[in-house]
Amino acid sequence: MHPKRWLPLLLAMPLATACVDAATPPSAQASTAGVQGQSLQELMQARGLTEADVNAALKTYTPSGKKDEYFIFASGGHGGNLIVIGVPSMRILKYVAVFTPEPWQGYGYGDQTNDLLKTGSRDGRALTWGDMHHPALSETAGDYDGQYIFVNDKANPRVAVVSLEDFTTVQMVASELIESEHGSTFVTPNTDYVIETAQYPAPLGGGYADLSEYDTKYRGAAIFWKFDRKKGRIVPEDSWAVEFPPYMQDLADAGKLASDGWAFFNSINTERATGGNLEGKPPLESGASQNDMDYLHVFDWKKAEEVVKAGKTKTIAGMRVIALQTAIDEGLLYFVPEPKSPHGIDVTPDGKEMVVGGKLDTHATVYSFEKMQQLIADQKFDGRDPYGVPILPFRDAIRGQAEIGLGPLHTQFDGRGNAYTSVFIESKVAKWSLKDLKVIEKMPVHYNIGHILAAEGDTVSPDGNYVVAMNKWAIDRFADVGPLLPQNFQLIDDRGPSMQLLYDLPIPLGEPHYSQMIKADKIKSIDVYKPAGINALTHQIDPFAVKGGEERIERKADGVHVYMTAVRSHFTPDTVRVKEGETVHLHITNIEQAKDATHGFTVGSHNIHVSLEPGKHVNVTFVADKPGVYPMYCTEFCSALHLEMAGYFLVEPK
Ligand code: K7E
Ligand code: CUA
User: Fold this and answer.
1) Which residues are CB-contacts of 95 (< 8 A; sequence separation ≥ 6)?
2) What tens digit of pLDDT does each residue of 65-98 get?
3) How many CB atoms sit inside 10 A of residue 395's CB?
4) What's the pTM value of the predicted model, to 2 decimals?
5) Residue 573 DSSP label
6) C-alpha triplet 630, 636, 638: angle, nearest 5°
7) Rounded CA gap, 167 and 73, in Å?
8) 275-295 as b/e, with b when 16 or more CB fall inside 10 Å?
9) Which ligand 2 atom is the nearest neighbour of the CA of 566?
10) How far is CA 493 from the centre of its chain?
11) Ligand 1: residues whose CB is within 6 Å?
12) Quick check: CB of 634 below 6 Å from ligand 2?
């Protein structure tokens, strides 16, 4: 509710009504208990704030009506949602429903979004959650363009496309080629491809093979989903994949500028351990940590495109796949050793270097793209892996290593030649110079930082300025809320001579992994669907859109069609009579064109709820299987007569 709009109305309301829905002015909510006066000094003293605290507060405080400079798009982890956060205020602006039904947005409670969620099914199973890890904003020439964002589901390998025109999920693609994923999603510099990489090897295309056949039957893979910018959709028929050995491919990144056309994948478990701790084998974690080195996968996707075009693929689970042997023969795939159990791989803004963090190592290793290219041109290999992939010599492929600390994971960049690396075991952010690979500053965070993000920090022209530590543990940072604690996003200011901690944002939805931060003015979202009758999935007029004055109820072979409009403060028709057992098709258009004039719609006891933003059209199909009287009403407090925006859905007995 907008307080300005509500205040006059509130005053006019009878007290009893006002108590229920009234927006309490913020000033009345702030506790000033124990504060004797209101001067800054007195407030600081009463609340026990230092000058540094006040300085931090002034840098984040955003007065009512003032807007943020950046948006963070954060993975909502198991929540399957995307979280939109403003910077520097760190106010949560929205959850965008993606893999999980979300009632406020009516996501998964009406026909269009139900159908969309169904396209994310696997093996015919409907899925109502996702494990989102890495959102990827669409890019043009290696820079965020603010048009789309892609997200992944690690548990149930899927990729979703979210349109930033209206912050709505518009597509989901799921390939049954792979059984889990993680190096996903990462885009090539012009968003030609969205990369999705398998994590835990399995027989490609599904099916059974015992773990004793791990080396021969299990495989990794990377899918290159082709994105059609004009359509704003991934085109599965134009997508393809490459087969990898059964290592656990981890994170990925696409080359840019100097390294455009190449992609990089980390791997762990080159030992090919399979666990079996009750079968007399070492547990997976120790079996997978025997080798000193794993393999960075260096892949020429531009050349791979040609190989696909030439038809040198086999089709598995409907996907054109470049076989591992073909990838080797065609010179598409090379390995370079990387220190023990690597995690993040991040290409520098100029595309010339690749930074790898090793979980069980103390370094960030900086690989030189130019050196690797030279080694490939000279065919200078240090042997081959058991599957025949050529291995480039480690020492000759790197520029050097930065001594970071215990457990470096992920790296982002600023626009001044520096890198920020998250240091998990130490719970620190390390800022270091790409020039001399020396640490400049280390800052404690709370606690156990996973990903790190900087403003536009993985583009060709990063801002730096703001850095966010995405901490896995909060421990003592917030009031206790039972054993399950929120994660903690810590906003750090890096515009001054040294990094300064500004703000702790609890994320009450877990577990977020990666996020990206984009300049707010790059996002040009609409506020009203124009003209009225738009299907938010297609961004086109829905075939069942209803115009004012054309509301009606029609009986057809497939059931009762109710063509309904919503406008403050009534639905037309507001009485719907059907017979027990009839299939009902509700077609509802919010014919309003005023910003924020959203209505919601429900028919009680039928698990139906839709959100009708101004101009939006939704369809809802269900069977009226039980005779009765069911109130239907608007669920958004849209007007003074919102409570009267209601009607009856009557199901007559047969
Ligand atoms: Cu959590 Cu990127 Cu999935 Cu690292 S990953 S922390
Ligand atoms: Cu429409 Cu309340």
Assistant:
1) 76, 79, 81, 82, 83, 84, 102, 509
2) 999 999 999 999 999 999 999 999 999 999 999 9
3) 9
4) 0.94
5) S
6) 115
7) 11
8) eeeeeeebebeebbbeeebbb
9) 1
10) 24
11) 133-134, 182, 251, 343, 409-410, 450-451, 513-514
12) yes
